[in-house]
């Protein structure tokens, strides 16, 4: 975690507070690995403000022979043909990085690559992602602002999402979210007060039309009739080439412009994490929705956690889908194991076994290890994708190595799985799994990240981090 060396930035404070603190930011380890095309950031003074993967196309040279040490005032990543100096970020803004590809060394100027939020305590940058929403060949920037208050600030904490269209001059400009007018991007407004739309964002071509669609989590939404407090929701806004206006109301999604996915039970908090991946390999991106407050099969295990997988398709969308209607043909639900595990607080995907199907990666922040004897050590579930044969539900307890496996953390309160992601780190064609362990304790709460290399076969039902440090898990 880095502390801003030059400024005192607005903190989250209270809902309408006026506190000011020195801003902080953290840079995920994905930036130091070759072959990844992502830059991931954590923005804010609280570890609860976690940014999702932010994709920026760039050419990355061969891996460095050594990594320079972190310093409090800056982080410098040096590779054989490029280097960069990255300073901390202010809360309620997002900074974009354009990396040199010609061997040059460049100091990044934050003043000309900054996106500013609109109002105080909007939490702009709570989540970030990208995708080519308008199909012009340039990735567009997607920014969650889950504290936004809707059009004219009339719906407190409904949440907002900003989409800034990419283009050849994007990297030399600065933007204010209030300037979005349909030509340069647009704003998506949440529905009801307190829904927290934008707490998570992602993108993917769910309806197979060639345009990336915007995926939005609204974890405090209360269902179709607002009758189930904090059941959670997710919105899918379809991409298109043109016809954008300055704002889109999530309440207007009608099946043609997108749709809403409603959670099941009060307190599920569906949508705290959203991601995408073609789990059934049909060419349409599937929507992954983390439900860390879910209570498992028959609501028999409080806060065990769940994940809803909604299959993409080319047509036939209705304005809304109830997650309770997933039956194996249109998607399925993955149930966690034990009470209090919070499975699904984070979700991601990647083809770990190289069979052509995206596998579902699920963070289990408060899992207690293989014998439930290591409180909050944390776990991660990997459920292998496949073309067919899905039932309406999948029990994580059935993972046996052939259909997926479990990764267990090391020690007490490590919170392994607080963040999960994937990418082909070693270039062998298999997605490798990244698992954050923010409270691992070589030094008190210094934290660690583990990389588990993908492979075609030979998986067992579980992998223990502690006994694999020197082999497949680094």
TrEMBL record:
Q: What ranges cover the FG-GAP repeats?
A: 111-173, 417-461
Molecular function (GO) terms listed? hydrolase activity
| GO biological process terms on file | cell adhesion
Q: Which SUPFAM superfamilies match?
A: Integrin alpha N-terminal domain
Which domain of life does the UniProt lineage start with? Eukaryota
Keywords of the record, alphabetical order, are: Glycoprotein, Hydrolase, Membrane, Repeat, Signal, Transmembrane, Transmembrane helix
Q: Transmembrane stretches, by residue range?
A: 78-99
> What GO terms fall under cellular component here?
integrin complex
Any coiled-coil ranges, and where? Answer: none
Record InterPro entries: FG-GAP, Int_alpha_beta-p, Integrin_alpha, Integrin_alpha_N
PROSITE patterns, alphabetized: FG_GAP
Name of protein: Integrin alpha-2 domain-containing protein
Species assigned in the record:
Hemiselmis andersenii (Cryptophyte alga)
């Amino acid at each position: 975690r880095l502390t801003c060396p030059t400024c005192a930035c607005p903190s989250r404070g209270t809902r309408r507070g006026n506190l000011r603190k020195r801003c902080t930011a953290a840079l995920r380890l994905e930036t130091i690995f070759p072959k990844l095309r992502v830059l991931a950031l954590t923005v804010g003074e609280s570890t609860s403000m976690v940014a999702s993967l932010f994709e920026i196309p760039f050419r990355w040279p061969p891996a460095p022979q050594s990594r320079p040490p972190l310093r409090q005032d800056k982080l410098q990543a040096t590779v054989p043909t490029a280097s960069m100096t990255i300073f901390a970020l202010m809360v309620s803004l997002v900074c974009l990085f354009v990396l040199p590809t010609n061997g040059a060394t460049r100091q990044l100027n934050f003043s000309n690559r900054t996106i500013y939020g609109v109002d105080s305590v909007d939490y702009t940058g709570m989540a970030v992602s990208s995708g080519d929403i308008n199909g012009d060949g340039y990735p567009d920037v997607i920014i969650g602002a889950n504290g936004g208050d809707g059009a004219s600030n009339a719906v407190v904490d409904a949440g907002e999402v900003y989409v800034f269209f990419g283009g050849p001059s994007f990297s030399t400009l600065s933007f204010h979210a209030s300037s979005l007018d349909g030509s340069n991007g647009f704003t998506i407004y949440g529905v009801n007060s307190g829904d927290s739309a934008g707490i998570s964002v992602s993108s993917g071509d769910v309806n197979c039309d060639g345009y990336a669609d915007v995926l939005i989590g609204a974890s405090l939404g209360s269902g179709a009739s607002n009758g189930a407090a904090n059941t959670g929701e997710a919105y899918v806004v379809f991409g298109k080439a043109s016809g954008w206006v300055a704002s889109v109301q999530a309440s207007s999604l009608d099946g043609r412009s997108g749709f809403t996915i409603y959670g099941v039970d009060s307190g599920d908090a569906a949508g705290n994490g959203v991601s995408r991946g073609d789990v059934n390999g049909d060419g349409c991106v599937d929507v992954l929705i983390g439900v860390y407050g879910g209570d498992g099969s028959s609501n028999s295990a409080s806060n065990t956690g769940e994940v809803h997988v909604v299959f993409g398709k080319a047509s036939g969308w209705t304005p809304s889908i109830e997650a309770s209607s997933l039956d194996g043909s249109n998607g399925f639900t993955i149930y966690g194991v034990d009470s209090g595990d919070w499975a699904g607080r984070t979700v991601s995907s990647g083809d770990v076994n190289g069979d052509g199907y995206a596998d579902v990666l699920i963070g289990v922040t408060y899992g207690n290890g293989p014998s439930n004897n290591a409180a909050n050590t944390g776990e991660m579930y990997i459920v292998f994708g496949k073309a067919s044969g899905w039932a309406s539900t999948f029990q994580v307890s059935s993972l046996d190595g052939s259909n997926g496996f479990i990764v267990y953390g090391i020690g007490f309160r490590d919170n392994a799985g607080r963040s999960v992601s994937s990418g082909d780190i070693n270039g062998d064609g298999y997605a490798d799994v990244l698992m954050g362990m923010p409270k691992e304790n070589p030094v008190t709460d210094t934290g660690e990240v583990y990389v588990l290399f993908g492979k075609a076969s030979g998986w067992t039902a579980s992998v223990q981090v502690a006994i694999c440090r020197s082999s497949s898990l680094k």
